[in-house]
Design goal:
- The chain is an alpha/beta fold.
- The protein contains 16 helices and 13 strands.
- The protein has a domain of about 260 residues: Alpha/Beta hydrolase fold, catalytic domain (Rossmann fold), CATH 3.40.50.1820.
- About 35% of the residues lie in helices and about 15% in strands.
- The protein has a nine-stranded mixed β-sheet, sandwiched between helices. The protein has a two-stranded antiparallel ribbon with strand order 1-2. The protein has a two-stranded antiparallel ribbon with strand order 10-11.
- Keywords: Hydrolase, Signal.
């Protein structure tokens, strides 16, 4: 027998073509699109005003951008799914088109809600103007100058102290109340898992279920372990080359190649002529140690792409720098576009910077200890917001939670998921073999996530389909790996 629908569910059930409201929020048709996405996504968009500073509700207000992707049924469940984007600094609305395929099964029964966290996307985005790509000044002093300039440019439109995770959690609750839904399902990705856990602590009765993909424990000081996690991930990926005779004989030990290159480039960066990977136009720039380390870091997020690193490093060792330079420039440009750097600083400087400590053991890693030193220098001039007294405490309680980790994740390794799951008795942690960061769209994972959200029983999931996943073998030459 079909259950009767409440007024809330009736509002949520309105077909996309004719819908104008969800709860108390008026929407209008829009299209979500992002670079790299296979296709744009039809949606409904709206704006919700909130105080920038909740302690001063009559002062400046900011407008939050919201999108609603409608369920495929006229009788949807009354509890929508919220996607919480990563970063800190990514927009949920901009991130969604690239992962929309992972939500197709969810959309059979539930609406998906995309809220641009304050300071990202179109929610008073805190973006910093970037240097020209040809700039070669990578000093901490230059970074501080750029940070001060960014702060000056943003001060007219924002008090950056109020763009923290705690403020985002309050915004999320305000949107839930405006939608009139009694409970929601959370899907947090990377930094979004921190937002999800803080929301679960603040409003436990409002969370029906949570999926945490690329888990950030509340105890983690963001940035403190980046160098070590990347080193461990690359060591495991490079070891695959040394174990494979064709790769080892053709390319040697990739880590040895990296260290020789790093020493050379630290002493004398290369001036490189190349073609822009996006436009094809001729370009030139400096390829030094930071570009090399950044390239390895970005590649490591996706092991299928990192499989080409042994070959890329071998080419660099032979003096061929143009392809690597084009890749480094393209990746850095895409990161600058995807991340709102000012919002990232507001989060990190308020929640983590005071606990960051440079680790001498990181000095000889791929990433080095510069990352921590840069954050400390930038946060010395960036205004700090507040962090809740229980911020580092884990999320607890009986909320059903599914945690996802990639075996080779270079930033949120599986041990983080284990730490969070230990405090959640109705949780299950799935580790995807041979995979990297952000795995919700991998293999049969979308079906498992949809099934979990439908039944909220992680223990009952049949995850045997994940056993078919495996690491991508390293490229031994330009045509791939040996048979």
């Amino acid at each position: 027998m079909k259950r009767p629908l409440s007024f809330i569910a009736l509002c949520l059930a309105a077909p996309l073509a004719s819908a104008t409201t969800l709860g108390g929020i008026a929407f209008s048709p829009c299209t979500l699109a992002a670079p790299g996405a296979s296709a744009p996504v039809a949606a409904q968009c709206a704006r919700v005003e909130v105080p920038e500073d909740r302690a001063a509700p009559d002062a400046r207000r900011i407008s939050l951008a919201l999108a609603w992707v409608a369920a495929a049924t006229a009788d949807p469940a009354a509890d929508p799914v919220f996607l919480l984007a990563g970063g800190p600094g990514q927009s949920a609305r901009d991130s969604y088109p690239a992962v929309a395929g992972a939500f197709s099964d969810i959309l059979k029964r539930r609406h998906v809600i995309l809220l641009d966290q304050r300071g990202t996307g179109e929610s008073n985005r805190l973006a910093c103007a970037q240097d020209e790509a040809e700039s070669t000044d990578i000093s901490i002093g230059h970074a501080v100058e750029q940070t001060r300039a960014c702060l000056t440019s943003l001060s007219a439109v924002a008090d950056v102290r109020h763009y923290t995770t705690g403020n985002a959690v309050a915004d999320l609750e305000a949107v839930r109340l405006a939608l009139g839904v009694p409970a929601i399902n959370l899907i947090g990705v990377s930094y979004g898992t921190r937002v999800a856990q803080q929301y679960m602590k603040a409003y436990p009765e409002a969370v029906r279920s949570a999926v945490l993909d690329g888990v950030v424990p509340n105890s983690l000081v963001l940035g403190q372990e980046h160098a070590r996690n990347l080193e461990d991930s690359l060591a495991r990926q490079f070891a695959a080359c040394t174990r494979l005779p064709a790769c080892r004989e053709a390319l040697g030990d990739p880590m040895d190649t990296f260290r020789a290159l790093a020493a050379e480039l630290a002493e004398q960066p290369r001036q490189v002529h190349f073609r822009d990977a996006t436009t094809g136009a001729p370009a030139q720039g400096e390829f030094g140690r930071p570009a090399l380390s950044g390239l390895l870091r970005m590649y490591a997020y996706q092991p299928a792409i990192a499989a080409t690193l042994p070959l890329l490093l071998s080419d660099l060792a032979q003096g061929h720098s143009d392809a690597a330079m084009a890749q480094a420039r393209m990746l850095m440009s895409s990161m600058d576009e995807a991340m709102a750097q000012g919002m990232g600083l507001s989060v990190t400087c308020s929640e983590d910077a005071d606990e960051l400590v440079p680790d001498p053991a990181d000095a000889d890693t791929v990433m080095g200890d510069e990352f921590v030193r840069y954050i400390q220098a930038q946060c010395a001039v960036w205004p700090h917001g507040s962090r809740a007294a229980d911020f580092r405490e884990p999320a607890r309680g009986d909320t059903p939670v599914l945690l996802l980790s990639g075996e080779l994740d270079p930033v949120t390794p599986p041990r983080y998921g284990e730490e969070v799951a230990a405090h959640l008795p109705r949780s299950r942690h799935l580790v995807l073999r041979g995979q990297g960061h952000n795995v919700i769209g991998t293999g049969c994972t979308p079906k498992l996530v949809a099934r979990f959200i439908e039944n909220i029983d992680a223990a009952a999931l049949d995850a045997e389909c994940l056993d078919r996943l495996a690491a991508t073998p390293p490229f031994s030459g330009r045509y791939g790996w040996e048979p």
